[in-house]
């Protein structure tokens, strides 16, 4: 028993010794918006001002009904007066008595004055997004200690306001990142800088306090197994050590291999301090007039700008949010993210390290910049906190003119890795990063330039414009240009803030904040899926599954480090039109195709594969993540019509003509046409009237249908206009079959050589619409310059009135254009009907979405036809916040058609079959 007690005491002593050797933390606040601690709080202006209460820390006080909400362009003078006063009592562990104790703030907006037990901890910290600390060892006492913090939302340093506050984003106040105490042994490691190159060269700079004489370093792999020999060296205050490691597993976004470096500080043989750092072996190299190389491979960055943001908590986030954000970016097949426009939470960089995402880390500065003294201090804080993350491959000194050039030299001097420095929106350091240039980037800058092209912002999203709209054209040019290093979209998520002063309304400050690919709560918009396909690292060459198809697909490997044989491919054949779909599925052998090379994927399809409607191919990465699912229609619309549209019946077609109309009946269906114009006036079935009328009205064409005649051909009735080249060159023909099917055939010429869209419209009251079911590409709407991201199938959608980027952020939207229509069932509240086509590449359009408030430039220009429901041969494109549709590339330009007055004249055609019966023939 005595021996056991002694052993127990030894274990306790060993545990205490090990604990004493490590840096210890005691959180005074919570760790994020999902874990907070209440502090006493008082705000001097705005909501709930001038009274002591409590507030969760970390947080932005506006989100808890204090102060006043401000967007960056808001000139409200209250911004300069708001201050938050915080109080919190805490106790320090008794065993910390002999230690150095720091109080650490990971982020506070903006000027922060700290007192412990009534005494100042040091100079007021100015700058919101940086980790700062004070040594409070001499200010502490046993028992309760009082922490007092005064936070001024607006800085007394005008350069801080210019860099951080006068910006195109929400301006918040408060201690928005965690606060904790840090206990260190008297002799300890103060800072470690690490450089680990792809060739295995490991270099570290260690800064330690006096009182120790030796240091050792050991690397461990993910399994905790020691990697390489231990490094031992004598140390006094600072030392730089180097070592070669053999064949390390390299870090990249595709293979984010990490090691752990354990640093142990000794006094003689006694361990006095240990710390651990994550290490990624990788090399970043910029080759002038060539490109950016990671581990020797030339990169194309598929990036996005990202704010630290969440709608219910402002700039206060959590590790869970960081994980969700990075996973969504990688789900879109992105490989890079730019910090906009300030350093992020440390846990976001941790996640980028572990999941694999290249990072451009940015010293704050929107259009203004820090003065040199302030910027020097804040840059050092950013560097000390962020420098060892392998995910960071670029530094950025401010944004869009917010560059203090006097700070440039400090990045290289303080960074052991010597990562490249970027001036976003400038030609600097061999990079052309100009924002929001037209598709061709300007003569002399794109195809004829000499710098590495890497726009740090392009395709500025707003509402539903930008992002996926235009990206296919841009990316095709970027991918094929040797000088292009890709670019960064603006931006990741809608900046929608939950307004506690407006009953929870999610406020994007009009058109300032709805710039995201996803909504405030990460709702996926249509562009999300378009980006996912356009930026897929596996590119499928267009392929028609015609007779004789042998299952071979030409593919290109657009990975940088992954062979396609490390991916998996699954196929699935589906027959969609039966009440219960039938299918066959299997896997395809992944071909060995090296990065940036082309090859063939062979799918061994079963006999009878042409009896199915569609072939789906899903590619998955080495980690099992779905890269994309491509769909390839097998049946054509004409085959669908032949299969589903029943023309014969026992009943006969009858027609009655009067002065004004043709009235036709067949199989319980009654249709009325205007005798002069030929337009549909009335539809009725056994359930009653269907309010689908007043069509076809040509869009971008003239309704010059004239001189209608009626005739009976066999068992059908045909009503058709007369063609005359000068005055009635557009023609309309209706055919009514015994089954009640009504066929419409229009041949028409657009009014102009260039047209925004072409097709025909019908009237249908929006209040009657309940939903649709259709066969075509879905489930998201499309634009002329955003056709990617959908799959071919049968889709059912309920009516909604959602506008992209506005509450309730409900996706997919209902109104808009849809592509590759085979048939559509329009489900009314009292009656329904179906429309088929035997033509390929037909669009249908549902009503006109709300046009959200554009900028004064009116660049988005989301144009829709007249009336309510349309069937189109060509649809319109959409612009971005900064560009009109036609400047986003060829797909954004207007349609071009031949002049019908020149020989040979080419008319557009539209053939539709209307089934107004109460039967479901699908």
Automatic annotation (TrEMBL):
Record lineage: Bacteria, Pseudomonadati, Bacteroidota, Sphingobacteriia, Sphingobacteriales
Gene Ontology biological process terms, A to Z: lactose catabolic process
Protein name: beta-galactosidase
Residue intervals of the Glycoside hydrolase family 2 immunoglobulin-like beta-sandwich domain: 188-282
GO CC annotation: beta-galactosidase complex
Record's catalysed reaction(s): Hydrolysis of terminal non-reducing beta-D-galactose residues in beta-D-galactosides
Beta galactosidase small chain/ domain ranges (all copies): 716-829
Domain Glycoside hydrolase family 2 catalytic: 284-411
Membership in a protein family: Belongs to the glycosyl hydrolase 2 family.
Keyword Glycoprotein assigned: no
Claim: Hydrolase is one of the keywords in the record: yes
Signal peptide bounds: 1-20
């Amino acid at each position: 028993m005595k021996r056991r007690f002694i052993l127990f005491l030894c274990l306790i002593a060993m545990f205490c010794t090990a604990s004493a050797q490590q840096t210890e933390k005691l959180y005074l606040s919570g760790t994020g918006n999902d874990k907070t601690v209440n502090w006493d709080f008082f705000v001097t202006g705005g909501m709930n001002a001038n009274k002591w209460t409590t507030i969760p820390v970390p947080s932005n006080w506006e989100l808890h009904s204090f102060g006043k909400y401000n967007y960056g362009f808001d000139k409200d003078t209250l911004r300069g007066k708001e201050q938050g006063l915080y109080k919190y009592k805490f106790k320090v562990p008794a065993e910390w008595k002999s230690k150095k104790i720091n109080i650490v703030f990971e982020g506070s907006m903006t000027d922060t004055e700290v007192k412990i037990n009534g005494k100042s901890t040091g100079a007021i910290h100015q700058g919101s997004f940086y980790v700062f600390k004070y040594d409070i060892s001499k200010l502490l006492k046993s028992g309760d200690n009082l922490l007092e913090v005064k936070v001024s939302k607006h800085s007394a340093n005008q350069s801080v306001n210019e860099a951080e506050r006068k910006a195109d984003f929400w301006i918040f106040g408060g201690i928005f990142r965690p606060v904790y105490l840090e206990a260190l042994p008297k002799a300890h490691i103060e800072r470690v800088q690490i450089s680990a190159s792809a060739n295995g060269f490991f270099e570290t700079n260690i800064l330690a306090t006096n009182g120790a004489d030796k240091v050792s370093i050991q690397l461990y792999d993910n399994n905790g197994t020691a990697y390489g020999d231990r490094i031992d060296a004598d140390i006094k205050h600072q030392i730089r050590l180097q070592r070669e490691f053999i064949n390390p597993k390299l870090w990249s976004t595709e293979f984010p291999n990490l090691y752990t470096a354990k640093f142990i500080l000794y006094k003689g043989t006694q361990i006095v301090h240990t710390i651990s750092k994550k290490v990624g072996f990788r090399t970043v190299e910029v080759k002038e007039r060539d490109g950016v190389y990671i581990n020797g491979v030339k990169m194309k960055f598929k990036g996005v700008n990202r704010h630290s943001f969440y709608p219910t908590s402002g700039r206060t986030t959590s590790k869970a949010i960081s994980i969700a954000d990075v996973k969504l970016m990688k789900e879109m097949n992105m490989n890079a993210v730019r910090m906009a426009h300030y350093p992020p939470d440390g846990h976001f960089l941790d996640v980028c390290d572990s999941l694999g995402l290249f990072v451009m880390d940015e010293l704050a500065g929107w259009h203004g910049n820090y003065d040199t003294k302030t910027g020097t201090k804040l840059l050092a804080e950013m560097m000390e906190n962020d420098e060892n993350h392998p995910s960071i491959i670029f530094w950025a000194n401010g944004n869009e003119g917010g560059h203090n050039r006097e700070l440039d030299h400090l990045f290289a001097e303080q960074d052991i890795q010597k990562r490249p420095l970027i001036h976003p929106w400038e030609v600097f350091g061999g990079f052309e990063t100009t924002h929001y240039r037209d598709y061709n980037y300007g003569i002399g800058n794109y195809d004829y330039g000499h710098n590495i092209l890497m726009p740090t912002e392009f395709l500025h999203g707003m509402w539903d414009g930008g992002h996926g709209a235009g990206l296919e054209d841009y990316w095709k040019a970027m991918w094929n240009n040797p000088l292009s290093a890709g670019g960064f979209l603006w931006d990741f998520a809608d900046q929608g803030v939950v307004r506690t002063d407006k009953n929870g309304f999610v406020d994007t400050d009009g058109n300032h904040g709805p710039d995201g690919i996803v909504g405030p709560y990460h709702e996926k918009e249509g562009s999300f899926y378009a980006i996912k396909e356009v930026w897929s690292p596996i590119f499928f060459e267009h392929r028609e599954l015609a007779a004789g198809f042998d299952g071979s697909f030409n593919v290109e490997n657009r990975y940088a480090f992954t062979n396609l044989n490390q991916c998996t491919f699954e196929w699935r054949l589906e027959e969609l039109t039966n009440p219960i779909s039938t299918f066959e599925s299997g896997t395809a052998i992944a071909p060995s195709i090296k990065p940036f090379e082309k090859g063939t994927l062979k799918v061994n399809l079963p006999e009878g594969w042409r009896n199915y409607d569609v072939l789906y191919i899903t590619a998955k990465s080495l980690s099992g993540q779905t890269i994309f699912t491509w769909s390839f229609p097998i049946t054509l619309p004409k085959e669908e019509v032949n299969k589903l549209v029943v023309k014969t019946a026992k009943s006969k077609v009858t027609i009655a003509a009067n002065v004004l109309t043709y009235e036709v009946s067949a199989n319980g269906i009654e249709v009325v046409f205007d005798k002069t114009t030929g337009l549909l006036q009335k539809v009725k079935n056994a359930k009653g009237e269907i309010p689908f009328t007043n069509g076809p009205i040509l869009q971008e064409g003239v309704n010059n249908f004239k001189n209608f005649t009626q005739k009976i051909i066999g068992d059908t009735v045909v009503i058709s206009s007369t063609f005359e080249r000068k005055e009635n060159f557009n023609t309309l023909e209706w055919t009514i079959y015994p089954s009640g099917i009504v066929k419409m055939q229009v041949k028409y010429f657009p009014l102009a050589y260039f047209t925004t869209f072409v097709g025909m419209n019908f009237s249908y009251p929006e209040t009657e619409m309940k939903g649709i079911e259709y066969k075509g590409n879905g489930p998201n709407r499309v634009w002329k310059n955003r056709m990617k991201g959908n799959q071919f199938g049968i889709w059912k959608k309920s009516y909604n009135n959602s506008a992209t980027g506005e509450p309730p952020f409900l996706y997919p939207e209902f109104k808009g254009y849809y592509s590759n229509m085979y048939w559509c069932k329009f489900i009314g509240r009292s009656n329904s009907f179906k429309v088929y086509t035997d033509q390929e590449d037909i669009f249908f359009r549902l009503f006109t979405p709300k046009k959200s408030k554009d900028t004064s430039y009116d660049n988005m220009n989301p144009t829709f036809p007249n009336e309510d429901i349309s069937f189109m041969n060509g649809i319109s494109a959409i612009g971005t916040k900064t560009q009109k549709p036609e400047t986003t590339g060829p797909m954004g330009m207007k349609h071009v058609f031949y002049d019908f007055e020149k020989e040979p004249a080419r008319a557009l055609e539209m053939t539709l079959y209307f089934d107004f019966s109460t039967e479901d023939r699908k």
